[in-house]
Design a protein that fits this description.
By secondary structure, chain A is an alpha/beta fold. Chain A has 3 domains: 22-129, Rossmann fold (3-Layer(aba) Sandwich), CATH 3.40.50; 130-163; 167-239, no CATH class. Chain A has helices spanning 30-40, 57-65, 99-111, 149-162, 167-184, 190-206, 209-213, 217-226, 236-239, 245-282, and strands at residues 12-16, 22-26, 45-49, 70-73, 91-94, 116-118, 127-128, 131-135, 138-143. At the A-B interface, strand 1, helix 1, helix 2, strand 7 and strand 8 of A face strand 1, helix 1, helix 2, strand 7 and strand 8 of B.
Chain lengths: 283, 283
């Protein structure tokens, strides 16, 4: 009944929206730099509270590279300081060695229901971070719910290894195809909306991710001319004549298996040749 | 500098904590059932507001299977109704056909900063859901940030295909090993804490995930006796003598490649045999 192997005991994995929001990060050390990296994936503005002397090299690099994204408040966090009001933020992340200060910040956030994460104090966190894989619009998070960070890294490698690296591009190109289709057949919902959705689904079912990712701007036009306008789904080879990306992608993947078969076949030939020689020499 | 291929434009993927929390789901249709499924992965209690007549079959199954987890309020959602106060919840999810009612619920939540998701109205959501893969303590989320649900399903299949199915068990067994190690060498932090962490890391680096997942309770004791007590990392074969889990796991994986090679070899033999026959018959 449930799609899940396991009921209970887990977290709710969600994609939090931070466009136009403000995030406060308290602490600019190594963990603070990790937090900045996570928030840079979104479109939030970051206020970083940390004395300059305590900034990690990576934090300094972020401040230098993304001045429009990060405002550095060169001071320690102090309660009663009018310049830092946790209520002014949509999310607060502490990355401090001082657990007592972290706790007090979390309590202040909790009262006014500002989502908060305190590094290294899981029982105080509204949410945890996890291993992240990103490729354009594609984001993948791997959470072990606090069990074994070392294994989490191994699982992240497996997930990365499963991707061809074309998935993000496929999402972008399908988005472009959908946008162009909407220009040709505009309107929201209704019969036309359903027809658009059906045709898009058929294309995504027929074409591989790698083929979708290889769709150039001209290909998109041709796919609409030859496909949408004629109510059919052209084969990828019909449209992607120009670009060999798809073919080579598959070629590289199967080259290993092919060469193994060739070697086995040759071994069989040699084995048979030797066996016949032995057989004939003894006859 | 950043671990990420892409800066900006994304969501913040997080693992939200709901242990001991209360979640309100408004609407018990098909999407409502999906929401119940998502929350059942956590330890939150669910209040479901929906007239009985509007419950999806799957929702009814959830209500029957998890009565202690879900309280069904058999009524439509109405403002001013004293029995439904969004402020009493830690999270609110609407799954309604009535967009206006959804909007009003979201606005009520926003004022008091209760995290809220409104199905089909992305611009009103604090967070989105995504494709989920779970195996015990392991949870993976795939988000395409609203681009192409069809492709999201294909990517989910790729991620699932990359897992051996032993990852969750490996996390559980490493957790058991860590717990037993802490019994033998108790205490928080300090030199002993560092030594424990180093030894655990070495084990996780030397053993494969599948081997870690095959650790039985007796194996854990032997690994501590032969490993931790002697400050070394025994080879998996030294400890896992009894259990063949690891061997078979690998065996199944390579069986396909092996049989392909055998077939190629035999093909080579047959080819050579025929070639010799032809050669001899013409001589």
């Amino acid at each position: 009944m449930s799609d899940q192997k396991t009921i209970g005991g887990g977290s709710l994995l969600i994609a939090w929206q931070l466009k136009g929001k403000r995030v406060l990060i308290v602490g600019g050390g190594e963990v603070g730099a990790q937090r900045i990296d996570s928030i840079l994936a979104t479109d939030a503005h970051i206020d970083l509270v940390s004395p300059s002397a305590r900034l990690h090299t990576r934090t300094k690099q972020f401040l230098g590279a993304y001045p429009a994204r990060i405002t550095h408040l060169d001071q320690p966090f102090a309660f009663g300081d009018s310049s830092i009001d946790v209520g002014a933020y949509d999310m607060v992340l502490t990355a401090l060695d001082d657990n007592d200060l972290s706790r007090r910040i979390v309590e202040a956030c909790r009262v006014i229901r500002v989502p908060v994460n305190a590094a290294d104090i899981p029982e105080l966190c509204d949410f945890y971070f996890g291993g992240q894989v990103r490729d354009g619009p594609l984001q993948i998070m791997i959470s072990t719910n606090g069990n074994g960070p070392r294994i989490a890294a191994l699982i992240k490698d497996r997930v990365k290894g499963a991707l061809s690296g074309k998935e993000g591009e496929a999402l972008v190109r399908v988005g472009a195809l959908r946008a162009k289709l909407k220009e040709r057949a505009p309107g929201v919902g209704g019969e036309l909306g359903k027809k658009r959705m059906r045709w898009m689904s058929r294309v995504c079912e027929t074409w591989s991710l790698e083929e979708l990712g290889s769709l150039g701007d001209e290909d998109v036009g041709m796919l609409l001319d030859e496909g949408w306008e004629r109510n059919r789904v052209p084969a990828p080879a019909e449209i992607l004549k120009g670009s060999k990306g798809s073919f080579w992608g598959k070629g590289v993947k199967s080259a290993g298996a092919l060469s193994a078969s060739v070697v086995s076949f040759m071994a069989g030939v040699v084995f048979a040749r030797v066996a016949f020689s032995v057989y004939q020499s003894r006859r």
